[in-house]
Amino acid sequence: xxxxxxxxxxEFFQSVGRGLRFVSxxxxxxxxxxxxxxxxxxxxxxxVEVLITLVIIGLIGMTAALSTTAGDSxxxxxxxxxxxxxxxxxxxxxxGDNIPHDRGVQINGYVADMGRxxxxxxxxxxxxxxxxxxxxxxxxYYAGAKISTGWNGPYVDRPDTGILKDGWGSALFFxxxxxxxxxxxxxxxxMQPGGRGPAGDIVVKIKPHQYMAPLGFSFRGIDGDLDQGxxxxxxxxxxxETGGLASEELEMDRYTSGELVFGLFVSNGxxxxxxxxxxxxxxxxxxxxxxxQEKVIVFSVQPxxxxxxxxx
Length: 312
What we know:
By secondary structure, the protein is an alpha+beta fold. Among the domains are: 1-16 and 43-67, no CATH class; 212-311, Sandwich (Immunoglobulin-like), CATH 2.60.40.1110. The protein is built from 4 helices and 16 strands. Strand 5 (173-176) and strand 6 form a beta hairpin. The chain is elongated and about 120 Å long. The N and C termini lie far apart (106 Å).
């Protein structure tokens, strides 16, 4: 019984060996050797050997296909990751970073410096992220307002061709919407608009609430005595047209308790005024009779409602 088992096992492995030799013969011989008149190997091949040969060929083909698919997937992942990282870098250049500051949270970025979204050139590229456009102010500190405004780039590395490209080597597209949004688009692996899955577009959209925000505070006056007509409040921020300093006197509302307030209440369908994110300041000129007090309050405008509290 044991001898018979050993004999069967031996015959099986001999068949496998002959099948492998047959596969090697098929892969290495010239077409002429495969001519029907060519004589078969000595004693021919059994059905088991032929089946084993077919299985081996199938496994080799499957392994090659899987290897090719894995390579394509790896290439896609690399290109996709490079695209996402670049788009996030551009978004960060526009919106900036929140950095702790002794007078609030300083935000470094294009909007914080210029008070607006990047300007697109004739090629539809945000060239102002790496090169200061003519006519726009460079970074400058204003002692009276105690803040700086103006172009302080480059915010991203200048591309060699002047075109920002995705991980597949295609140009990124930029759109400024009527809703004051800023959209960054890559057409993905197929380099065509639309598509699904790996061929789908990659889109990053910066919405207005991410770079513009409302502001509110109240004013009670000196010693609690209110003089609405005499006290003034002027906000300072980057001029969106030039990047220089813009100053705007705020219109105050009277609250039922007698306080003057700004930006806390909205009526008749009006919208709260919005200001670009970044380090800003208010010059408060407070008058009480013949007395006059002037102070500059430096603060950060961040996404969301910004309440400064009560100015006294």
